Amino acid sequence: MSTHEQWKSKMGFILAAAGSAIGLGAIWKLPYVAGTSGGGAFFLLFLLFTVLLGYPLLVGEFIIGRRAQSNAVTTYKKLAPNSLWHLTGRVGIFASFLVLSFYSVIGGWIILYLVQAFTGNLQGLSQEQYGQLFGDMIANPALALVGQLSFLLITVLVVAKGVQKGIEKASKIMMPTLFVLFIFLVIRSLRLEGAIEGVRFLLVPKFSELNSDIMLFALGQAFFALSLGVSVMVTYSSYLPKTQNLPKAAGSIVVMNLFIALLAGLAIFPGVFSYGLEVDAGPTLIFAVLPAVFSQMPFGMAFFVAFLLLFLFAALTSAFSMIESLVAVFTKDEHNKRKRFTWMIGTLVFLVGIPSCLSYGVLAEFEIFGMVFFDFVDLTVSNVMMPLGALATSLFVTFKVSKPDLFDELQQGSRVGKLFFQSWFYALRFLTPTAIIIVFLDALGVVGWIGAMFS
After folding, report:
1. Which residues cross the membrane (predicted)?
2. Taking 90 as the threshold, does the pLDDT of residue 354 lie above it?
3. What are the residues whose beta carbons fall under 8 Å from the beta carbon of 264, sequence distance 6 or more?
4. 267 — pLDDT class (breaks 50, 70, 90)
5. 38 inside domain
6. Tell me, what CATH number does 344's domain have?
7. Using one digit for the tens of pLDDT, what is the confidence trace for 121-144?
8. For residue 372, what are the domain limits?
9. Does any domain span residue 60?
10. Does residue 281 lie in a domain region?
11. Please, what is the Cα angle at 120 between 118 and 124, to 5 degrees?
12. 3-state class of 338 per DSSP?
């Protein structure tokens, strides 16, 4: 028998969806991209893009997901039959698959570092030694693959149990724990001598440093951090009852995401500046720089272990959503197939993720457009596929689904008026696509070329 699952509670959905949004994007990626992209200017753009572009799109994905009550591919088929719009769902699912293939690699690094911390191997090293340890660890093919496999194993075991017993139950434990641990770490970080310089770096924008690349990174980060453009939120919202207030739920998720992003910056940059470390360390910022910061604090390793644990929680809740969107497509609500397909998909993700896993070791010399395979997949998904998926979704929602149907779905569970609806609708129809197109054209140099023609 085919029955579509539902979340057990409204809070369970919000925590699970927030967990999908608040993952490596907020904790691993945002701080290092901010560190290499001007700090405050990048963070301000990220905030604006999240609120002005991300929120309307999140509401849009919620609407079509709940309206169709199906997986991401079937959703587009139901709402736009006999058309090619289902390709939006298929491309989104493929993007989720690619994200998880390199995402699981980072999850494996976290697990390996936790093992190193518990065995005492992270005690009393210099920043250079931490960097060397991390480099040696991810360059070791056996270690890196075991870490990736362990992360995927945890993910598969939870998702195989289903929406209520697996994802929702785990998220209800992990997300509140993450918030508590993060606030504790931020308080400790802000008490360091010279911490104010790190706060200034994160919150005071230097507009002279803005360029098209930073704008594109901020746009990609806004969509990456909210899991938009890859059909994840379409899948999650398909499990919602009609009593769920969609605008309120989306607002809660956006606020939590921005709050965690802010906490991540405030936990990391004050310590980096306090101890005179490199703020533009890139993807290794968490693993090579943070241990050096924590090691110089009283009970530093205990704090670092706590940070790694919340880092792992965040990574897992995001991984749950990505693999769930894949499982939903293949099971088509036939629950007896869930375990089998979850294990099959998890295995395939592991195999496809092997080149990313070995990118800093035996495949370090293999480059695509000057990037190792891991960085190439990350850039392709985050800065190309996600924004383009967001563009397609915004056009689908506002041009293909009728306004009466959108208004009807939005009103179920909420009491939004026509003013909110019209503001949301036109923001999604015009503001989101225009911003995405302009940023892309600027990154390609087209905007500057057009400007030069008329100057």
Report:
1. 12-30, 42-64, 91-118, 138-160, 172-190, 214-237, 249-277, 297-320, 341-364, 384-402, 423-450
2. yes
3. 26, 27, 30, 31, 182
4. confident
5. yes
6. 1.10.4160.10
7. 887 777 778 878 888 998 999 999
8. 10-454
9. yes
10. yes
11. 135
12. helix
